[in-house]
Design brief:
This protein has four helices and eight strands, in the order H-H-E-E-E-E-H-E-E-H-E-E. Strands 1, 2, 3, 4, 5, 6, 7 and 8 form an eight-stranded mixed beta sheet that branches.
């Protein structure tokens, strides 16, 4: 008597279906975790802040990897310095397929009620210093070799809106006082920024 191969085929099909189902479930779970506000606030923003030698926080984050990022109550504070930037809302709408193709394609960049505060100390330092200095290499880490500059990125930004901005320059004086200059209620809109 010869055994039929049909039960063995059904067994492989069932295992393959289970494997595909598990893979799809893992992909959906990964998408939900990576696009969650908690992941953006707890992982992405702290890493960006560390790269800037600062603390970067937001009270809420909404993220769609393919088209949109929205951050509420954003605050950037250089380490050991006074806060340099706050905004009630930062919204970026972009075209991910175009970006993956090497084009910086942004439909909208909107910043609501930003406050930029630059504080200069008596010794000439400011809260900008740590943001402008390059990050120090960790011990044992080799410096990346310099490369020749390549082609500039293609930029296509439809609209940039800065709404109700406040820009402050504060200078600490030797006698202990402060000198302050402020520009308030600034609204700027730019459109069709391209190279």
């Amino acid at each position: 008597l010869s055994s039929s191969p049909a039960p063995a085929r059904r067994g492989w099909r069932r295992k393959l279906l289970w494997l595909v189902g598990i893979l799809v479930a893992l992909l959906v779970a990964a998408y939900l975790v990576l696009s969650s506000g908690a992941f953006i606030k707890g992982v992405v923003l702290p890493r960006v802040g560390n790269a800037l030698n600062a603390d970067l926080t937001a009270s809420d984050a909404t993220f769609n990897p393919f088209s949109r990022l929205e951050l509420r109550d954003v605050k950037l504070t250089p380490k050991g310095r006074e806060s340099i930037f706050t905004a009630s809302l930062i919204r970026v709408r972009y075209n991910l397929p175009a970006i993956l193709g090497g084009k910086i394609a942004v439909e909208e960049l909107a910043i609501e009620s930003p406050i930029i505060t630059i504080v200069e100390n008596v010794d000439g330092t400011s809260n900008l210093d740590s943001l402008l200095k390059p990050a120090k290499a960790k011990p044992g880490e080799k410096k990346a070799p310099s490369t020749k500059p390549g082609e500039p990125a293609v930029v296509d930004v439809k609209t940039v809106t800065l709404n109700n901005a406040t820009i402050r320059r504060v200078k600490n004086l030797k006698g202990g006082g402060r000198e302050s200059l402020e520009l308030a209620n600034v609204t700027v809109t730019a459109s069709n920024i391209k190279n």
